[in-house]
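REQUEST ID: PR-0412
SUBMITTED BY: lab tech R.K.
PRIORITY: routine
TASK: structure prediction, single protein chain
INPUT:
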Amino acid sequence: MLFFRYHQTIFCVVNAFVRTLTRYPYSFFKTLIDHEVTVELKNDIQLKGILKSVDQYLNIKLDDIQVVEELKYPHLSSVKNVFIRGSVVRYVHLPGASVDTQLLEDATRREAAAQQAKAK
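STATUS: complete
OUTPUT:
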């Protein structure tokens, strides 16, 4: 379930956007190529960089990386490009401009209307 705030109302996008995202995450991440993203790994390391490629296994290649907590991981300060295996990724933090909020709002309205029609 994905929640977001809009004019003090919480909308819940259940089917339209989230179902599409869970079925086709590869396609979604392909749209983020050449955007800056932050990848949080399962070992708590966060890497910020330019997404250069992603494959069907959600392996990620980042260029021009910066370690978010550089003092905690000084051995990574000289690394500029990384390939991250998809199975070690915990989260991918997206830039706000890359998410189409209008699409989310429309999907929310359609889902709410469908649920109301089902309830009747």
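NOTES: Confidence is low (pLDDT under 50) at residues 1-18.
REVIEWED BY: pending
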